[in-house]
Amino acid sequence: MGASKIKTKSPVIQVHFSDTLTKHRIVQGLFDADIQADETVQIEQTTLLLYDTSQEAVAFNTLVVDQNRGLIATQKTTRQLIARLQDTSLGTIREARIYRNMLHIANGVVPLVYGRSLFIPMASPFRGNCDWINGRHIHTIRDLDKATELLWDKGIKAQVFDYHDFETKIHDAVLICQYSIQILKEMYESGYLHEADNEILGRYNNCDCPNHRRLAQAEPLVPAYQAAQLEVFLSCAFPKSEYDSVDYTDRVAAFHTNLRKKSRC
After folding, report:
1. Using CA atoms in the order 52, 53, 59, 62, what is the torsion angle rounded to 10 degrees?
2. What value, to the nearest 5°, has the Cα angle with vertex 24 and ends 238 and 36?
3. Origin, by domain of life (predicted)?
4. DSSP track, 58-110
């Protein structure tokens, strides 16, 4: 399939496919009329599936399946898209790998989790590109011979090649989610998040240094934490050439916007 057959993005997409999505059918060009090219695409909570097409005879490296935006083709690889998702999330694959080791999970599949957000790879994400599934929106799972068929709302159906039992993947990923949430709760409830109340340590709680003044201004620290986390954790999993630089000012603005949206809920 040539690049000329792929449309550029449009603001409104009618998301419905009469046939089941498979890589073979995508390569055959059966979904050309539904595919849009968009190099600015990012993974969102409405993303259902990332198809790794980097080894297929098509003009793009990843096909993003989104419940609102439809089929989106991009030259970015699944590793690059997942790396960017980690850049804008508090969860990292490296942390999930720590939880997996705690739980003695044998398979090499390491999901990207934070809270109830859950993206599951179909193979080890440390070994290259692979398909990724957002676990939040799956409606029905059907086991096939060497594949798993997934059904979502709006009549979207897709098949992914699966080395391991998919329900085991979901079980393990949910377990990792639960462990990460429990650890956060324990850290808070243990008292380790309380301010120091002895004289020696307490005198530093409210000093007048620039960083303490910043803290006193109640400026959200999550964007800065994300940037620092990216430098420490993400570079261990992916080379820097595989993810885009992010403007810190834009990230802070986006975080404030998200806070305002939540406050209106």
Report:
1. -10
2. 65
3. Bacteria
4. SS-SEEEEETTTEEEEESS-HHHHHHHHHHTSS--HHHHHHHHHHHT--SS--
Q: State the greatest distance between any 2 C-alpha atoms of the chain, in Å, as a whole number.
A: 72
Q: Is the pTM of this model over 0.70?
A: no
Per-residue pLDDT in tens (0 to 9) along the chain, 265 residues: 444 355 555 433 445 566 899 999 999 999 998 999 999 999 988 999 999 999 999 999 999 999 889 999 999 999 889 888 876 665 666 677 777 777 777 766 778 777 777 888 888 766 789 999 998 888 898 888 888 899 987 778 999 987 667 888 888 888 888 887 787 777 667 665 665 567 776 777 778 887 777 777 766 666 666 666 566 655 555 555 555 555 555 655 665 565 555 444 4
Which of 261, 114, 245 shows the shortest CA–CA distance to 173?
Answer: 114
Question: What is the rounded distance in angstroms from the CA atom of residue 237 to the CA atom of residue 94?
Answer: 7
Residue type, position 92, single letter: T
For residue 154, how many C-alpha atoms fall within 13 Å in the half-sphere facing its CB? 15
Instruction: From 100, 38, 111, 45, select the one nearest 71 (Cα to Cα).
Output: 38
H/E element, 143? strand 140-144
φ, ψ at 222 (rounded to 5°): -60, -45
Length reported for the chain: 265
Domain boundaries, the chain: 20-176, 219-264
